[in-house]
Model the fold of this input.
Amino acid sequence: MKYLLRAATLCALALSVSLPPTTHANTLRRILFGSRDQSDTVLLELDYAAKSRMTALPNQVLEIRLEGTEVPPDFATPSVPADLSVVKSVAITQDGDSSLILQFQLSQEAEPSAWTLSAHPWQYVVNLVPKAVNRRANPPQWIPGDRPIRTKYADSDMLKKGSPSVLLSRISFSALLAAACMTGAGMMFIVLRILDRATLKEEQKHGAESPGAPPARELTDELSEDINHLMRTAHGESNAILESAAAAEERVRLVLKMMREGREVASIAKALELTPDQVREILERNS
Done:
């Protein structure tokens, strides 16, 4: 009897080890919609990555099938915003316990593209661009929820080597142009001042010298002092403009670097003492 109990225990233990571990079904947590530049973006957030398949069906229907995924009992299908350009409605059905089916009714033919935004939670992004729209080359993608995104800079060799060498931006060009204009104005002022002094000296040479007129040496020293002061002022302002342009270029570099590291817009703005709108403007200008 003792040997039978031992054998039964060993069989039960072997059976429990051989069985696959119990896994919990993946869960769809939320769906977000956004629209920009005549294209729509849909974000699906799940607990973890799921095998997905995207199919274009007749009557302008886009179907996304997520294997091994379910929706929680209290999940409510979100309403589609009225300002979207492509997506009209979404319907969610459960294909048994094997997969979740999402069908998006589109208002026009669109070219879908998809990528993974994050792993934990798994964020699956689908971008829908109308086929009738002439898209710009490599447009920056925008994600609902204002999350850090991958752009064309993410896989560039320039960023993989370290600090990016940002091309001359509009800020730098404006600063250099302002410095050149200020230098030119300063030189023009110097030339006019010299001509005025020369004219005055010529008049004093041919006319009667006034009793209270200063000597020629004093006038020369005063002119030299004025020229030196003007040159120092122009040089200082030019340096200040160039330093401001360098600081602006550094902020652009840091914003691109933090974005590549996956930081949020709000976090980047707080770290660099900028507003979120300024961070978005830098991202759009350098995309």
The helical segments are 2-18, 157-160, 170-206, 216-260, 265-271, 276-285.
